[in-house]
Structures are given as C-alpha cells and as structure tokens.
User: What shape does this take?
Amino acid sequence: MGSTGALHQCDAALLASQGAEEELRQREKQLQQSARSSELMHKTLMQRLSTVHDQVRAAEDAHAAALEELRGERREQSRLNQRLLVETSKQRALLLPGARHMLTDVPK
Assistant: This one.
C-alpha cells in the first residue's frame, strides 16, 4: 500500500497544484480586468476634465468679450456725453442773448 499511498499523495498534490494554478489565473484575470477598468475610468475622467477646461476657456473668452463690449459702450457714452455738453453749451449761448433781450423788453 506504500506505492498506492504515494500515488494518492501525488494525485492530491497535482490536484492542489492545478487548483492553485487555476486560482492564480483567475486572480490575474481579475487584475487585468481591474487594470482595464481603471484605465477606462482614467480616460473618461481626463475627457471630462478636458471638457470642463474647454468650457472654462469659453466662459473666460465670453467674459473678456463682454468686458470689451462694455468698455466700448462706456467710451461711446462718454463721447455722447461730451457731445451733448458741447451742444447744450452752444444752445445756451444762442438762447442767452435772446433771453436777455426778452427780459429788457418786458414792460415794467
């Protein structure tokens, strides 16, 4: 029974070795799946980050354009105010002599 016992031990060792080998393959497979999943998640997050960066740049560009437009409007408003002051001064200059004349012609 010595050789039969040795055969059983060899068979048991072979089965254990095959089981360990299968377990090792399963773990490697899980690691590969985990690595692929991690890589996919990383790519997805990088794409989202890139999209957010693009959106921020677009918002900054729109903000800069709005500020420039506002500056232009303020320049135009200032120019129109100056023009209005000049025109008002001219109108007052034209009216003042007439107004003085009208005051001197008022009967007492």
The chain is about 95% helix and 0% strand. Residues 100 and 106 are 10 Å apart (CA to CA). The chain has a mean pLDDT of 89.
